[in-house]
Amino acid sequence: MSPRTPGADLPEHPDRLWSAAEPKASYDVVIVGGGGHGLATAYYLARNHGITNVAVLERGWLAGGNMARNTTIIRSNYLWDESAGIYEHALKLWEGLEEELDYPLLFSQRGVLNLAHSLQDVRDSVRRVEANRLNGVDAEWLDPQQVKEVCPIVNVSPDVRYPVLGATFQPRAGIAKHDHVAWGLARAAAALGVEFVEHCEVTGLRVSEGRVTGVETTRGTIAAGRVALCAAGHTSVVAATAGIDLPLQSHPLQALVSELLEPVHPTVVMSNAVHVYVSQAHKGELVMGAGIDAANSYRQRGAFHIIESQMAAALELFPVFARAHVLRTWGGVVDVSPDASPIMGLTPVEGLYLNCGWGTGGFKATPGVGWCFAHTVANDEPHPLNAPFSLDRFVTGALVDEHGAAAVAH
Amino acid sequence: MLLIPCPWCGPRDEAEFHYGGQAHVAYPEDPGALSDEEWARYLFFRDNPKGAFAERWSHSAGCRRWFNAVRDTATNEIHSVYRVGEPRPVTP
Amino acid sequence: MRRETGGRIDRTRTLRFRFDGRDYTGHPGDTLASALLANGVRQVATSVKLGRPRGVFSAGSEEPSALVQIEAPFPEPMLTATTVELYDGLVASGLPGQGRLAAEPDPARYDAIHAHCDVLVVGAGPAGLAAARDAARTGARVILADERPEPGGGLLGTAEEVEGRPGAEWAAAVAAELAGLPEVTVLPRTTVFGYYDDNYLVAVERRTNHLGGAAPAHVARERIWRIRARRVVLATGAHERPIAFAGNDLPGVMLAGAARTYVNRYGVLPGRRAVVFTAGDSAYAAAFDLVGVGVEVAAIVDVRPEPPYRAEAAARGIEVLAGHVVTTALGDPEVSSVLVGRLTGTGAVTGERALDADLLLVSGGWNPVVHLFSQSGGTLRYDEALGTLVPGTSRQAVEVVGAAAGDVTAGVPYWLVPAEDYGTHFADLQRDVTVADVLRATGAGLRSVEHVKRYTTAGTAHDQGKTSGLLTTAVAAQALGVPVGGLGSTTFRAPYTPVSFAALAGRDRGALHDPVRVTALHEWHVAHGALFENVGQWQRPWYYPRPGEDMEAAVRRECRAAREGVAAMDASTLGKIDVIGPDAAAFLDLLYTNMMSTLAVGAIRYGVMCRADGMVFDDGTVIRLAEDHFLVTTTTGNAAAVLDWMEEWLQTEWPWLRVHCTSVTEQWATVALVGPGSREVLAGLAPGLAVGAADFPFMTWRETEVAGIPARVCRISFSGELAYEINVTSWEGLALWEAIMGTEVVTPYGTETMHVLRAEKGYPIVGQDTDGTITPQDLGMSWVVSKKKADFIGKRSFARADTSRVDRKQLVGLLPEDPELLLPEGTHLVEFSSLPEPPVPMLGHVTSSYRSAALGRTFALALVSGGRERVGARLYAPVGDGLVPVTVTSHVLYDPEGARRDG
User: Fold this and answer.
1) Strand spans (E) along C84-221
2) What are phi and psi of C424, to 5 degrees?
3) CA-CA distance, C557 to C545, in Å (whole number)?
4) How far apart are CA A362 and CA A343, in angstroms?
5) How far does C74 lie from chain A, in Å, by closest CA?
6) What is the pLDDT of residue A408?
7) Which of A240, C202, C405, C640 is the most buried (most CB within 10 A)?
8) Which residues contact C631 (CB under 8 A, 6 or more apart)?
9) CB-CB: which of C377, C651, C796 is closest to B32?
10) In the prediction, which pLDDT does A8 show?
């Protein structure tokens, strides 16, 4: 028998996390949605702005939506200045978050490769690398041989359907452990006085004379001075109760995990053309995202042919995965905006704030969102980093279009 | 993999279809007469209900015809399919 | 050890295998687990976190402990020894938690099959066989899938009778009847692992695994079945539940039903002296079967104060300790004795004493296998009497029968033997999660079973909590003082058991990963040394290096030929769409930014299409063939998207327009004949064609014969030179090309030269010089945007605030001050001669950049903020570690007067 495998287990969680609260009649701020963004917003409201009479309302169990379902990739190598601004802010916060929250977040800066498979991919990639550098985001362009050095198991042979022509590399990018992040934020927010109400679904927003006054929930009416929406895929449904239409569509997004494997994959690899994003998580499991279902749906599961395509793509790039096994697949519901960029800021209803449209990219932005959205809520004014992501951009046409050149937005 | 009843071909696997989003969003008769807000609404704003949703599908790997369906986005159940130009059927 | 007789193994044949470096033998019909037990090997693996020895716990796919790595004939990570069929030459080892991937490529094949049926029956135990038989007798098309090699399910592990016959015999008879029916497909070794919407289920059939090294190479090793079923019958059986007590993970602790299976099915004695710890009736049958084959049963320890079958036990000389529990399994490294004690009225334990035993059978009751039912969207209900989740209401056409429906033997729910220290009461063996861990989680404030799972990692391992899930929930519920049923369960998700990546990828790999599209001339290009570029799914000649030439030299030569002599390119990949009907002109007017209805028959016009948001979507030429007939060309990569775009508008917005659109991309082979010498070459090949500039003006087309082949010749140019595009049927494309090359004056050129030539003229490539954020005006093409038309797609968007900005990015030319310096495509442009601290404001980026033989220098195209106002200005481009000065120019750098167009 072999000795046990080091690294196949995780650091322990603390003995005390948070206590679920019964809803009070009223709060200064109610945050709708107890995912990563809601928790981070609550934490920074308390930490940065001293606003502690805050409730986070969660329809299920805390951080049980997309926060529990994402593939935990963290990077900031986005093309446009506006995106790079907020994601890089988030990445800088990630770099100090473990210490700040005193929680083992397993934040591992193992780098992210975004592969290029066509000459146009190469142009787009170099463009992004150069933009990143000028924006102060670490980025390199690697040729196929250098790709192989960073990640020896990537198939860089020219004899595949879409050969790897190179990759962008962001060394500071990486992964973290999603539950640990959520719970670290929750524990820290709880310590500052924030309350968490689970199994409390917001069924309506109360608005009076153009100002939000509270929320209707499955556990009764809760008055609130301000309401901050962090409801991801369900944002449209909640906002509609206040008569606010949003340019969002909700789609299932799937991911999957393999059995625990000896370390083979030292970094994170993403490919747009051969749709793959994969890392080997802390215990040794391969964590892989699949494609988004085309049709709108609120079901937290996707169609199986998406998983099959995903596996075919994965084996194109990583033939060594052939006999790994899919242990579990799951789905989340992501809210996608027309330009694949988030919507953050004020709404036509006074005291009601929007944070949505993160699509497939929400996890990596978690602390950045918390910081900026808390600022927005506390000051009734967008933080400069989320000002470009206003709802108004769809009227003026000043989109932040991350479809074109930013590679997969996961 | 939904089983989508194409009004022309009968039930076929979802993989044969292309999704077209919300149905009954008509191209404005005179776009030039619209305000920027109204034009933005046409360009970017679509319903996103949790529940019955009238949506467009194209049987792109089959007859290549567009048609409409009412599907429940909470369950993925397709209540009805109908041809373009027909009114949305009343659903329970 | 192996019994002298019995079991469904073929004792006449011996299979050799190697485990953890030692050689053993077994028989056909064995699993790796049964063969190991037959050889007295009870420690199979090491636990992941605590490094504790682990043995065989079950006899099926629910196995949480006996994880193995296959080493030969080909490495495969993490399988359960209980499901690996033994074959000759098998080499395996016990796993300490992580599997290992092979370094070498997997030589096996994988595939997939679609199937439709009236009834899909999952599970070929007694309930499934009966259901399949009854359905089949109605003439229904039936698929019966079972994960085991042989139908019969649990019957094969017992001596029970069905319909008056021994179970195994009955199963064989039903299977034989089914095999004789033409509409029935019986799939052994096939696990239905996913249940999706509209009764779509996916299964994996393991076709050659069990043959080991003898597996034929031409047969797919695994096959995915994609099954659409009118109705589904789930006969998936039940898993026996463990009970949490100290040391319940030691090798020698085994589920009672599993022990019975090893005895009856595999002819194996899993121990010599057993203690049976149970909360229900079924373990008695196991005890009796064990006694029947000579295993000593020291006691049946039953938590129930008044268990049935005491007399039957006594008749076999077995002591029943009623109202007792096992508190501890002792031994190192495997069970050697068991501590038992009496339950008091409060549920505490008194009077502990030791019993010698090397085998401890456990039965905490049965959990119906509700995984697929739950995946189908069915609800689950907690049954208080059974202490388990049973199917509730279904959402699809599915029925659950047999043990899976809750038809399991009686017992009382019993989960946890009380103790002072719960440090070795394992809830999840595979994740090394103890009851103490679960209590820590609830103590930390967690109230949701999902949180407890994530805190402890229970249920996340290879077995996905098949035996541990409910136990973990029950322990948490007990700690929280809530009913087990009130806590719910974690979600059941596909796959039911792990499925290999390769099986799911199937054949969609390598050349079959995405279709490879090639033109009618492809073989010629290959034969003449072309290197290829992937453009969408197409392979296009990139350049044709001659011996000793690098890309730069080849492209310089090809460019020179086009600008000074004559050159030809295979342009067949350009999308071609036939647009026909009385309203075709009106339709194209709505689609393109410019006017197409005014185009004369016989003439050609360049056009741009925008999305409704005003951003450039595609461009190409429009040829008017007749009053009601146009041929539209698109970019290579966008052909399908443009056709879809047309269909969408026609069918959903303007159904009254009488227009039909047809893709004819592959029907035509297209050759671009380019250069000042092209007229002479064409004249030679097409004697019937008046080729003079006046007879055949720019932007017109003619029908003629070229090299004796009926052809449509268009006078268009993507290089600024005199040029023709010759279109012939694809069948004759190669003949045309060979005739052109046969003149021996024409140089073939590829996409790279095409790019240089068009860039010198400032012609943008959609997708390279645009990125979905660029309007025609940004490209300097206001001339292509009609002011006369009332509307066209995108028009309204040009009036929005952002599209009216004067500092929008505009297409310009760039000349590096160093004429030898080639700006990398993607380079950004700044106003500073030395870089400030980031973020550095950027003005735009280089979209195209080439060395130009015609210009005698390098040049580039770029999208630059307010670019047209900056013509003549100096900007800087960060290249490497430095800043390179460049001058902004017009995007048209070569022959701006258009003097070369007519030759």
Assistant:
1) 90-94, 110-122, 142-145, 161-162, 165-166, 184-187, 190-196, 200-206
2) -125, 20
3) 9
4) 12
5) 9
6) 38
7) C202
8) C576, C577, C578, C579, C622, C623, C625, C664
9) C796
10) 64
**Predicted local distance difference test score (pLDDT) of residue C247:** 98
CA distance A302 to chain B (A): 8
Residue A47 CB coordination number (10 Å)? 18
**Are C22 and C283 contacting, i.e. CB atoms less than 8 angstroms apart?**
no
| Rounded Cα gap, residues C492 and C255, in angstroms | 22
Tokens of residue C678, six digits: 């092209």
Nearest CA in chain C to B37: C800
Q: Token pair of A221, please? A: 């009416």
Could you list the beta-strand ranges (E) of C296-372: 296-302, 320-322, 324-330, 337-343, 349-356, 359-363, 366-368
> Mind telling me how many Å the CA of B65 is from chain C's nearest CA?
7
- Pair A386, A86: CB distance under 8 Å: yes
Distances (CA, A) of A191 to A30, A104, A371, C627, C785: 17, 17, 18, 77, 61
Average pLDDT, chain C: 96
Q: If pLDDT is split at 50, 70 and 90, which confidence band does A2 have?
A: very low
Categorise residue C696: left if φ over 0, alpha if ψ from -120 to 50, beta otherwise.
beta
Cα–Cα distance, C128 to C122 (Å, whole number):
7
For residue A242, count other CB atoms closer than 10 A to its CB. Answer: 18
Tell me if residue A389 falls in helix, strand or coil.
helix
Q: Are A228 and A32 in contact (CB under 8 A)?
A: yes
User: Burial of A99 by CB count in 10 Å (0-12 exposed, 13-18 middle, 19+ buried)?
Assistant: exposed
Question: What average pLDDT does range A119-127 have in this prediction?
Answer: 95
Q: For the complex shown, is ipTM > 0.90?
A: yes
Number of CB pairs < 8 Å for B and C? 61
Distance of CA C406 to the CA centre of its chain: 34
- Write the CB contacts of C494 (distance below 8 Å, at least 6 apart in sequence): A304, A328, A329, C193, C194, C195, C196, C202, C375
Alpha-carbon distance of C297 to B51, in angstroms, equals 59
Q: Chains touching chain A at 3 or more Cβ pairs under 8 angstroms?
A: B, C
One-letter amino acid for residue C540 of the chain: R
Among chain B residues, CA nearest to A303: B1
Low-confidence ranges of chain C (pLDDT < 50): none
| Backbone dihedral angles phi then psi of residue C804, each to the nearest 5 degrees | -95, -5
Residues of A in CB contact (< 8 Å) with B are 234, 236-237, 240, 245-250, 294-299, 303-305, 335, 338, 394-396
pLDDT-derived band of residue A409, with 50, 70 and 90 as boundaries? very low
- Please give the pLDDT value at position A402: 86
Nearest CA in chain B to A308: B1
Strand-strand pairing, A202-208 and A211-217: antiparallel
User: Between residues 304 and 333 of chain A, which touch chain C (CB distance below 8 Å)?
Assistant: 304, 307-316, 319-330
- Give the minimum alpha-carbon distance from C800 to chain B in angstroms, rounded to a whole number: 6
Q: Which of A160, A161, A311 sits opposite C505 (nearest CB)?
A: A311
C-alpha C614/C-alpha C772 separation (Å) is 9
Burial of C690 (0-12, 13-18, 19+ CB in 10 A): exposed
What whole-number distance in Å separates Cα of residue C364 and Cα of residue C347?
16
* C-alpha separations of A383 from A189, A368, C274 in Å: 21, 11, 70
Q: Which DSSP letter does residue C757 get? A: H
The tokens of A277 are what? 């994003």
CA distance B23 to chain C (A): 9
What mean pLDDT do residues A91-104 have? Answer: 97
What pLDDT does residue A323 have? 97
Q: Which residue has the tokens 């012939």?
A: C728
> Which chain C residues contact residue A162 at CB under 8 A?
513-514, 534
Q: Does B75 touch chain C (CB under 8 A)?
A: yes
